[in-house]
Amino acid sequence: MKREWWQEEVVYQIYPKSFYDSNHDGVGDLRGITEKLDYLEYLGITMVWICPMYQSPMDDNGYDISDYKKIAPEFGTMEDFDELVAKAKERGIKIMLDLVINHTSDEHPWFQKALEDPDGPFHDYYIFQKGAKEPNNWRSVFGGSVWEKVPGRDEYYFHSFGKKQPDLNWENPKLREQLYEMVNWWLDKGIAGFRVDAITFVKKDLTWRDREADGADGLSKCTRACRNQPGIGAFLRELKERTFDLHSCVTVAEAPGVPYGELGDFMGEKGYFSMIFDFRYADLDIASGSEWFKRRPWTIKELGEKIMASQTELQKWGWGANFIENHDQPRAATKYLREGQNNPEAVKTLAAMYFFLRGLPFIYQGQELGMTNFQRNSIEEFDDLSSVDQYYRSIEEGYSPKEALEFVNLRSRDNARVPFPWNGERYGGFSTEKPWLGMAREYPPVNAKDQAGREGSILEFYREMIRFRQKGEHRDCFVWGSIEPVESSPHVIAYKRCTEEENIWCWFNFSGLEAEERVPMGNMEPVWQSHGEARVCGDFLYLKPYQSVMLKEV
Fold first, then answer.
1. Same domain, yes or no: 188 and 262
2. Is 283 a catalytic residue?
3. Of the listed 64, 106, 148, 197, which one is catalytic?
4. Which of 43, 122, 278, 311 is most buried, taking the most CB atoms under 10 A from its CB?
5. Active-site residue 254, yes or no?
6. What is this structure's pTM?
7. Which residue of the set 9, 254, 345, 517 is catalytic?
8. Distances 198 to 37, 98, 189, 446 between C-alpha atoms, Å
């Protein structure tokens, strides 16, 4: 594909509620992001993705929007947002927003008008079905029926997610026009683009027929009938033509479940979006992406195979959006490293392995510090809607409360949403007031102040990786080069990055033991390693425990 400006970026994802609280009310805000731009510049970030900061009752922490063109008061004002965009630009940092257009809040004026007047135009902005009982047995992503009864009427409205998040009716062209106008309004304000939330849910199976039950509740997961449905392409193509194509912007779609054979429709030069996130390796530890209690064993070899299968397919069509953490995932160190989660060298190996893949690297706030999961002792300590649902569903499926709590601790989205630890003081310097969400440690030993400038810290390792990728002598190979899998031992993930000018082999040891790897040729020299010197003897490379090494043909 032709080269685009956004292919050279390094993206940092911010959960605004938990990044930095500038007015000390316990909730992070836009001014807090502005005040920490120096930190992002120090890290080497070139683009920031901000999770929803729109007006919202915060039932799902901002993914339930009640006004697309207003800032939630707890986050500040539109003037604060404009100031953030301007000051970020001064530092060479672009701003990308979350675009949530599958659903709104039930407090959005459109939905309120739809309830008030079932014969009015706004009623068709949402999905309603008449009847004295739920139209079918579909289960929402957050548990329970997708149908919620309208008070006082034999009518139900549809919600793929929480009951306070009614789905928009994309079959209505007037509704789509309203959304396109809003999207262009934000792009005209000077943002760089969007991460597009839950976009593969916008087309439903309009037969509304029952599906085979797959749980003790007698319901069937709605993803079978309202995700990646036939006909969705017409909606997504129109969205692109009416909005994204009119601007030099970047779009990254949250598009789980898209078959690899259909990637060309969703990404690349002719795709609906610039890139998509591939969740196949992110959901490695569970048998079903929407049911955390269905755990499964996995190996490093399997992780490597899934990552390389993803990379191989993505590069056929365009650019990958590479991540190991986000606001919907637990901490990567805990999930992928398990017993090695508190070993800084293990954390660095995991970081390097994903960061140098082909595509755009995404870093989630706190990932660059090696943050790990928390351990909560009661379901009452969780804020996340999905965590609460998974806990009670686990018990309904026959697990004990202790087992259910273990599942939720491992997978809760709250793991990534705890306030960012800026220093080791109370509440980690995030705020002087008690934060909106309990921290893993009230006086966090893992924090930015402790790691900044300290040789060997995980934060400084991330800075080094970013500099090496963005400004090092092998930049072209790591930014633009292709990728190929390389055979390796069971605890090592390996691949090759290639251009016409050079080939660089990369090995990442995920074991606490030394690993022996065969090198492709005798005359090779190291271009980068995580710790210690690369040791090549004859036809073999000897990797220290949790060491990353890159060798180049001489």
1. yes
2. no
3. 197
4. 278
5. yes
6. 0.97
7. 254
8. 29, 10, 24, 32
